[in-house]
Each structure stands twice: as C-alpha cells, then as structure tokens.
Amino acid sequence: MHKIMQGLMLLWLGGQALAGEEPALQWQRDVQAQEQAVSRQTDFNTYNYQPRPAVNRMLPPTRLPVAAKPAPPRWVKQQAKVYWQQHDRSRQVFTAHWRSQDGWIDYASVCANYRAGSLNYRDCRKAAKRYFVERCKAGKGAGYCHAENNFFL
C-alpha cells in the first residue's frame, strides 16, 4: 500500500520528482536551472563578449617534407659585333647583346642594350638575325639555327 501511495504522489507532482527523492529537492533543482537560464548572456558587445570554446577541435595537418626546389635556369650573357648594310650602302656596326640558356637564345633579349623601338634597335635585330643565319650555316650550334627560323624582328 505504501508503494501505491508513493506512485500516486509521483503522478500528482506531474512526474517531476525522482523516485525515492523528496519533492522539495526537485523543486530546488528546478529553481537553480531557471536561475542559470536567466543568467544566460543575451547582450553582446565588445566589453562583455565571451566566445564559446571551440567545439570541433582538429589537429592541424602534418607537414609534408618539402622537396628542394630545382635550381633556377642559368642564363649566359653573350655579345657579338654584328654588321648591317643600310639602303645607301653604308655599313653600321652594332654590338648585339643577348641571353642564352643551354644553347637556346632568348629572342626578347636580343639587342636589349638599345632602346626598344629605336632605329638602332631595329637595325641591330636585323643584323643579329643575319649573324644567327651565318652561325647556323657554319654549324656552330642548334640554338643559332632555331633562332634563324623563329626569331622575328
């Protein structure tokens, strides 16, 4: 009979009390939970903001060993005296400078020692192309033959 009364009492309290626990203790817990809910931060500004701790914590990825970078290409500066005959049969001498790498000529660097677009620059490049043709025919290197065919003025 005593157990039946205890069960009815639990139903009467709305099931809030735990079995074998006084209703007053349960009530105190409910009051504490409400107080905690009231003290929850609802106003955020620069003075009272407290960020939550990180929930999803992951370790940073492991660093893979970095392979050594290949050495930058070695450019070799070259120069030659080149001759260009003008339309009036006058002969001009230019010192053409260019860069090459592994025997291949960098076409943009040919006659870079003259101001781009000037008459001397254009004549120097014409003379340099003729110089490359002569060197190719003499068998001095594949870079000259490539320059002969692909070097545009």
Task: Describe the overall structure.
A hairpin with a 5-residue loop joins β1 and β2. 36% of the residues lie in helices and 16% in strands. It is built from 4 helices and 3 strands. The chain has 2 domains: 37 residues; 75 residues, no CATH class. Keywords: Signal.
**Main sheet overview:** 3 strands, antiparallel
The gross shape turns out to be: rod-shaped
Classify the helix fraction into a percent range. Answer: 25-40%
Q: What share of the residues does DSSP label as strand, in percent?
A: 15-25%
Classification by helices and strands? alpha+beta
| Tally of helical runs | 4
The domain count comes to 2
Distance between the first and last residues' Cα: 114 Å
Signal peptide: 1-19
Keywords: Signal
How would you sum up this structure in a few lines?
This protein is of the alpha+beta class. It is built from four helices and three strands, in the order H-H-E-E-E-H-H.
